Amino acid sequence: MARVYSPGALSAEQIFATGMRDQWHAVCPSDWVERGAIRKLERLGEQWVLYRQSDGRVRMLADRCPHRGAPLSQGMHLGDRIACQYHGVQVGSDGTVLSVPGMPGCNLEGKKLVRSLPVQEVGGAILAWFGTDPDVEPAPLQIPDPLAADDVSAFLCYVEWDAPWRFGLENLLDPMHGAFLHHESHSMFGGAQSARFRIRETDRGFFFEKTDQRGVNFDWVEFNRTGVDWVDLEIPYPSTAGPGGPFGIVGMVTPIDADRSAVFFWRYRRVTGWERDVWRFLYRTTLEDRHWAVLEQDRVMLEHMAHDADQAENLYQHDLGVIRLRRMYKNQAEEQAKALTDA
Ligand code: FES
Ligand SMILES: [Fe+2]
């Protein structure tokens, strides 16, 4: 009988460490997958291969040849399919074996033997649905509204950090670090260094926000679950940053494996007309470097946290957002592990 490789049952701990399944995750910037090329990637602790078909659509397959498990990413791009380099087996975009050149008519032909993930491109990034059951349709992906808005002009910034994905996301659910870690930055020098926070529910997640300050520093963040998990946050700009509204960030953090993360930030501003041109010019010439310097402070902090930093903490009121996030993901990991075991 033909076999399809799948990672099989995962424990709740493994899911918590390598990322939630049955949702969309940002995978990589769109321009990483060029026409005619093959891109190998690790995401959620698994190996994947991405390529663009001749019509430009991105495809994502498990990086494992159905014959003897060789990496398809070593293979050849044949327009709509990949040919494994080891013995030439050709796999189509939905994971079906299209040809076994060494043995024409072989019974592997026509069988769907490689996992293939549904893919969409959003805001210059490739997102994929990491479903546990290939027969279940992916949940609808609602694009983060700032990325769909006409009055928003965004730049995608991509980084990889040697830190677990949860550290990256928790950092975003922790606005108070702005007034300390980034206090010397161009945008987060102002405001009080003490605050009270609250959680405010929405129909797609929640706000975690200061009760006593807004529009001065990193004062709020919104966590959203719209098929993909993402945050939106806002930081006021000083007048030197040119005309237009405050500086916004849509953020997503995708596990590479249990210890490394792919971090996506769409840095945006609500600007139209000539203000949009000024924003894009200023970002490229001055602001981008400053933002990278701020992001570097986050990277250094998160990469140097102990891997088990969250095992012996003493949290206070400012950590309610982090607590909420962890509880949500822990519960979800347990539910998913149980469903995989029961399947
Ligand atoms: S392992 Fe890929 S064709 Fe044999
Ligand atoms: Fe930060």
From TrEMBL:
Example GO molecular function: monooxygenase activity
Record carries keyword Iron: yes
Domain Rieske positions: 24-128
Pfam families in alphabetical order: Rieske (PF00355), VanA_C (PF19112)
Stretches assigned to coiled coil: none
Signal peptide region: none
InterPro entries reported for this sequence: Cholesterol_7-desaturase (IPR050584), Rieske_2Fe-2S (IPR017941), Rieske_2Fe-2S_sf (IPR036922), VanA_C_cat (IPR044043)
UniProt keyword terms in alphabetical order: 2Fe-2S, Dioxygenase, Iron, Iron-sulfur, Metal-binding, Oxidoreductase
Protein name as annotated: Phenylpropionate dioxygenase-like ring-hydroxylating dioxygenase large terminal subunit
Source organism (scientific name): Gordonia humi
